[in-house]
Amino acid sequence: MIPWAVEIDRIDWDAYACRCGERGHVGEDLRRIISARSAAETGGVTLDGHVEDEVMLAPVAVPATGVIMAALQEELSADTRDELMLTLWRVVLGGDDESVKREICDRVRDGIWTLYREATRGDTESALEILEYVERDSARLEHFRRAVAPRLAKRTR
To answer: Which residues of the chain have pLDDT under 50?
Structure first.
């Protein structure tokens, strides 16, 4: 049993509006993206314009965030991890619907150690930017920021 797949299956995706105007497809889009071993295997499927667009969050972003947080705990292809982190970054830092954003941040906080792991092994910059927005323990965040500073310095060379 894979936790992110269980999370996808438990959600009634038809109950959530999407930015594209359709309902019901985001769960299967997530399944396809997360299962892909390369960008080619996604068949061009992306969450851009579905869970969010440039200024608005869709209600479907809330359950999608829970699935993303569960999936980020797994071994994923680099393309998949990049897509999920980009989507997470967009929904946490973007949008103007404060009630949806609050629910998204709560979902991220439920799995906050996943982002700390990502900061030490994966997309350090995006993880730290997301943590800057959702982390309530500023001392912990600052400690981790110092701990990963050599990693950031190495990546910018």
So the answer is: none
